[in-house]
Specification:
Helix content: 25-40%
Strand content: 15-25%
Distance between the termini: 20 Å
Structural class: alpha/beta
Order of helices and strands: EHEHEHEHEEHEHHEHEHE
Strand order of the largest sheet: 3-2-1-4-5-10-9-6-7-8
Number of strands: 10
CATH architecture of the largest domain: 3-Layer(aba) Sandwich
Number of domains: 2
Shape: globular
CATH topology of the largest domain: Rossmann fold
Number of helices: 9
Largest sheet: 10 strands, mixed
C-alpha cells in the first residue's frame, strides 16, 4: 500500500501518526512523509539579488521543513518498523503541494491531520485537510488521535447507501488487518423524504404502476442485499464482528450521532453516492462528516475515480 502523509510537526500531526496504528494498514506499506513550509507565492530568483534577508529566511524555512519531515519519519519508523519510509519537503501552498505530490506518487491513501499550528508558526493542516479531501483523486484519511492502546479492538462505522462508492468503503475495511475483536457497524441513513418528492424524482424513470412507496422499499431492499453480501463474504470472513443499523434521517446527523454515541475510532464513507433513484445520500455528507466527527474519517474513492 502506498501512503502519502502531510506532516507539520504540530501536536495534531504527532497524534495523526499514532492514529495510523488504528487504521489496519498493511505491514509492507510504502510511505512518503511530506512537510511544507507555507508560502503562497515563491519569489523569482532575481528577487534574491536585492533581498538577501528574504532569501535567507526562505532557505531557513526550507531547511526547517526538512527537519520537521525527518522528525515525523523517525516517529513513523518507530510505529511501523517494516514500512519503507521516505522524506520530502518543499515550500508553497500546503494543499497544492500535497495534491501535486499525489499526482506524481499515485498513493492508495493520503493522510492529513484535522488541525494544528505547525512548528514553523503557520497553520498547515487545518483547512488544508478539507481542500485535500475534496480535490484528491484517491482516498483520504483525516486523522484525529485519541488515547487508546494500539492493540485494543477498533470500532468502525461505514456509511452505506448501496452505491459503488459505499461498497468500496466496505471493501476497504475488509482489506485491512484489524485486531481481534474489532467491531464494524454498517449504517444506512435513508433520509426523511416526502412521498411527493419521491414521486417527482422517479416519474421519468419508473413505470406508471410503480408507486413512490414501492420505489423507496425497493431501494432499501437493494441496500440490505448489499449489506448481507458484505457481512458474509467480506467482513465476517475477516473475523470482524458486524452489525447493521437502518435509520431514517439526515445522513450527516445520523452518522455523527452514532459515531459519537458508540465511541467509534473511524468512520469510513464513500466520496459520493447515489441511491437507486438517484437521490444523493453520501455526496456532500463526506465533507460534513470529515469536518465535524470526533474521530478519524476515511473518505474512500473508487480506483481511478475522477
Amino acid at each position: 500500500m502506498k501512503i502519502l502523509i502531510g506532516y507539520d510537526g504540530s501536536q495534531s500531526s504527532v497524534a495523526m501518526l499514532d492514529d495510523l496504528k488504528l487504521a489496519g494498514l498493511p505491514s509492507d506499506s510504502e510511505a512518503v512523509i511530506m512537510s511544507i513550509a507555507e508560502m503562497w507565492l515563491v519569489p523569482p530568483p532575481s528577487y534574491g539579488l536585492a533581498q538577501t534577508d528574504y532569501v535567507e529566511s526562505f532557505q531557513l524555512d526550507v531547511r526547517l521543513a526538512r527537519e520537521v519531515a525527518e522528525k515525523g519519519a523517525t516517529q513513523l519508523k518507530a510505529l511501523f518498523p517494516t514500512w519503507k519510509v521516505t522524506v520530502e519537503s518543499t515550500i508553497g501552498s500546503p494543499a497544492r503541494e500535497l495534491l501535486k505530490k499525489a499526482d506524481e506518487f499515485h498513493p492508495d491513501l493520503i493522510v492529513v491531520g484535522s488541525q494544528g499550528l505547525s512548528t514553523i508558526g503557520r497553520f498547515l493542516l487545518g483547512s488544508v485537510s478539507q481542500k485535500v479531501s475534496t480535490e484528491a483523486h484517491t482516498s483520504v484519511r483525516i486523522s484525529r488521535g485519541r488515547l487508546q492502546e494500539f492493540n485494543e479492538p477498533s470500532r468502525i462505522i461505514v456509511g452505506v447507501d448501496g452505491s459503488p462508492e459505499s461498497n468500496e468503503a466496505i471493501r476497504s475495511v475488509a482489506s485491512r488487518s484489524w485486531p481481534r475483536g474489532t467491531e464494524v457497524i454498517l449504517l444506512t441513513a435513508t433520509g426523511k423524504i416526502p412521498v411527493n418528492e419521491y414521486k417527482a424524482m422517479i416519474d421519468a424513470a419508473l413505470p406508471e404502476d410503480v408507486s413512490p412507496a414501492k420505489a423507496k422499499h425497493d431501494e432499501l431492499t437493494s441496500i440490505k442485499k448489499v449489506l448481507e453480501q458484505a457481512l458474509e463474504a467480506q467482513l465476517r470472513a475477516q473475523g470482524l464482528f458486524v452489525s447493521t443499523i437502518f435509520k431514517e434521517g439526515d445522513p450527516r446527523k445520523v452518522l455523527l450521532e452514532e459515531a459519537e454515541k458508540w465511541g467509534a475510532d473511524t468512520v469510513f464513507i464513500g466520496s459520493r453516492g447515489f441511491g437507486k433513484i438517484k437521490r444523493l445520500l453520501l455526496g456532500s455528507v463526506s465533507t460534513a462528516i470529515s469536518a465535524r466527527a470526533h474521530c478519524s474519517v476515511e473518505i474512500v474513492r473508487l480506483k481511478d475515480a475522477e
